[in-house]
Amino acid sequence: MAEELQTATDKLEDEHYPAYTMGRAAEMLGTTPGFLRSLDEVKLLVPQRSRGGHRRYSRYQLRLATRVRALVDEGTGLEAACRIVILEDQLEEARRINAEHSSHQPER
């Protein structure tokens, strides 16, 4: 039982765990399921599928979708907004890796 509880806790803390249905994700973002499907079509988000074939989104994916929606609301085209978000995400990851790598370097 403790093992099951730990697994549930891990899932709740895992930003990549696909916890949200399309309807719930759209509600949380204040958008439509169609908007989320469009992000799937342009391959920004590739949601996992439930056993029944329903899309499931993670918190990480919802953060990306939120940023795309903000850019689209400002007048940026969908594909350009997706590209911007991808580049921002890659830059953030590169900075994180660089900071991690730098912290392990011995001082000279």
Automatic annotation (TrEMBL):
Keywords (A to Z) from UniProt: DNA-binding
Gene Ontology MF annotations: DNA binding
Top-level taxon of the source organism: Bacteria
DNA-binding recorded as keyword: yes
Entry keyword DNA-binding: yes
InterPro entries: DNA-bd_dom_put_sf, MerR-type_HTH_dom, MerR_fam
Protein name: DNA-binding transcriptional MerR regulator
